[in-house]
Each structure stands twice: as structure tokens, then as C-alpha cells.
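Hypothesis: this fold can be encoded by more than one sequence.
Test: take the C-alpha cells below, design a sequence, compare later.
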């Protein structure tokens, strides 16, 4: 899994078109969204994550929470982003992993938004520009490290 973390004044998105034959079904209110004072996590779920999705969910949540505490962000935004890797997990696994990350971050008390999965989206983001405002993380299951 590849994660790009951007501490932002805001992020806003608008769904434009289907990018998969069967994108995530979404209600009209999810076709546009905005979150302010937010730590955005652009996430590419990778093929290697299929070896242990539960483990990469836990590790991703840990990494995102660590950064959220450092930058004092209470709002988090999970953004499905298929452009950080050339070895993507299949959509069914990726969607489940992203939903689980969202769910576990909420369980930890954060306000969590998520952009719809399987669509082309226009988005605007305002990076805060401080030294910890742009970070990236690579997360792999332990099993993959032994190979
Ligand atoms: N920016 C627009 C976009 O990326 N659209 C992507 C994601 O929303 C989602 N998607 C598919 N596979 C994955 C994956 N492995 N990880 C994350 N998202 C995925 O499906 C779209 C087409 O790849």
C-alpha cells in the first residue's frame, strides 16, 4: 500500500465519471464533498496487500493516526487514488481495505470522510506547506517481507 498524506486547509471533490464498470454505488450527496482543516490520505492499495488485508489496514490506521497526532488534525479524509503504484490490488479488495481504514479511524474518534471509489473525480486541495504537511508511507504485510 502507498499512502500520500497531505495536511490541508481543505479538500473538495466532485465525481465526474465512472472509472470502473461497477464503481461503488453512492447516494447523490456523495457526488460532491468538502472537508476543512483535514489530513488527507491518498491511498493506492497494492497487489501485495492481498496477502494480508487485515494487517495492512491496521498498519495504515497506525501510520495515519501517528501523523494526525503530530499535525494535530482531528479531521481525516480517505481518498482512493490508483496513481501511486503500478501494482494495484483488484478493486474488490481495495474497496474493502479503504472502507475498513475509514471505519477504524472513526472508531478511534476522528471525523472521517471518504471519496467515492471507482470514479474519475475533480478535486481541489490546499496544502498547508509546513514541514510535516507532505508525507508518504509504504505499507506491506510481514509475509511479503520474507520473500
Ligand atoms: N483518482 C481517480 C482514481 O484513482 N480512481 C480509481 C479509484 O477510485 C479506484 N481504484 C481502483 N483500484 C484501486 C486501488 N487498488 N487502490 C485505490 N483505488 C483504486 O477505481 C478508480 C479507477 O482505478
Amino acid at each position: 500500500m502507498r499512502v500520500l498524506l497531505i495536511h490541508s486547509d481543505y479538500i473538495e471533490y466532485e465525481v465526474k465519471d465512472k472509472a470502473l464498470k461497477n464503481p461503488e454505488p453512492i447516494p447523490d450527496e456523495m457526488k460532491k464533498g468538502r472537508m476543512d482543516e483535514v489530513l488527507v490520505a491518498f491511498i493506492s492499495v497494492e497487489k501485495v496487500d492481498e496477502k494480508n488485508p487485515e494487517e495492512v489496514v491496521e498498519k495504515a490506521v497506525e501510520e495515519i493516526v501517528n501523523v494526525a497526532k503530530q499535525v494535530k488534525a482531528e479531521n481525516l479524509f480517505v481518498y482512493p487514488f490508483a496513481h501511486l503504484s503500478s501494482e494495484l490490488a483488484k478493486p474488490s479488495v481495495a474497496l474493502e481495505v479503504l472502507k475498513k481504514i475509514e471505519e477504524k479511524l472513526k472508531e478511534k474518534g476522528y471525523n472521517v470522510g471518504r471519496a467515492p471509489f471507482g470514479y474519475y473525480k475533480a478535486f481541489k486541495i490546499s496544502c498547508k506547506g509546513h514541514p510535516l504537511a507532505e508525507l508518504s508511507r509504504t505499507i506491506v504485510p510481514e509475509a511479503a517481507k520474507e520473500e
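The pocket of 3'-deoxy-3'-(glycylamino)adenosine is lined by residues 19-20, 43-45, 80-83, 88-89, 91, 94, 117-121 (CB under 6 Å). The helical segments are 53-71, 91-107, 142-145.
Hypothesis status: open.
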